[in-house]
Design brief:
mainly alpha
Length: 138
Amino acid sequence: MAKQCKSNPKKFWKYVNSKSKSQTTIGDIKKVGSNGLVSVVNADEDKANVFGDYFAGVYTHESDGEFNALPSRRPTNPCENVTFSEEVILDKLNNLKENKSPGPDSLHPRVLSELRYQLITPLRLIYEAGMSPLPGGR
């Protein structure tokens, strides 16, 4: 084949195409019946039924009714030792990359960087309010 590829390129490409085309059929499937006997399935419709039965048996059937509510499992206060000083906040605002795109809050880093001295105290108060325990012990 290699010696004849220049003189007979059609034969060469026919061989290459025969090896590179994907198979369009599914091979025979071995199926274990409920009685334990192994059978070979080779008809397309039977193969589809075997796959359908398998996937139908794998998934869980959920009821259409309402589910029981999950119990609330909120931590007592996992961040009670976290403190936010104005120096740390200023350091973080000074190190913002101004050429990056806005985050999920839609605030551009350039705006935060230019207003950093005005934002230090409000940000500290917001962080401290977020760390305080919820009223009612929840």
